[in-house]
Request: fold
Amino acid sequence: MWLNTANGIFLSDTDLLEWSSQPEKTTINWLTPMTKNELTPSQWQAIELNARSNHLSWERVILDLHSGRVFGPLAIWLWDIFALALLLVACSGVWIWLKQR
Reply:
């Protein structure tokens, strides 16, 4: 990977750990940014899908499902109410069990 900075051009090793300064006369075909207008709709959709899928792991899906975030902000409150109800049921069960002993 090449990096163009105010202090010069640098080249990295394959692990992106070591950077070496390169002469200013080095010719590099830099990538140029493209606008959305230069792409077809299918190309743009493929790029968006690829960008989203790289950030979304199964762990994130399971965590969001577990916390209720998958279904929006109201679901978070609903999960909290369910949690409080389960705590009440557990506490009342322990209380009844202790009372019968």
Remarks:
- Strands lie at 2-5, 8-12, 19-22.
